[in-house]
Amino acid sequence: MLSIRRELLDAKLEKFQYLITGNVLDIGGKKINKRGSFTPPENKNIFWTYLNLFSEENPDVVGNSNKLPFKNDIFDAVIMTEVLEYISRPEVAIKEIERVIKNEGHVLLSVPFLNPFHGDYQSDLKRFTESGLRDLISQTNLKIVTLDKMGHIGAVVFDIIRHNLTHSNRSFYQRIIFLILRFLKPLFYLLDSLQNKNNFYITSGYFLVLKK
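RE: above sequence
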């Protein structure tokens, strides 16, 4: 069962996939064992490059986001979803993205806020507020086109319960609770829809579109 956050992220990627054109860099992306339902557009004019720090993920390029092994101004789009929280110096990674992306190119970026530790929690370093993100991007020549909250109280509560059940010893009663949670998932979406959209205190994270 996918988290609500992952489903919201997939929806954002689908909404903005028209910006994914030409030469595309996917930082931290996976060719296999992908999370979520979003897949790269099937377009012969799109050349997709996966960069990952870990060779076992079978990327096209093994590399570090803080020192991208590419020339300046060669990508039309960069995707970095659920990666920035692992980076000790995110300002360096953002500057590297600015360096390798062409003028008029777009960056699709997502980060968590009120979200449990990721499965690889030993490397999960940071959480970002909206103000922190705006400050981070202001240190570059990238411009924020979109900065959207991803989920409210319903998404946050659902994902915390789901995460707790996923990473617990799955007793009979916990499996029953997991099934009940799956059944009640639409109610958590309803709770999100009733949330005052001006309430910026509670969100599972953010999705950004940046332009150079």
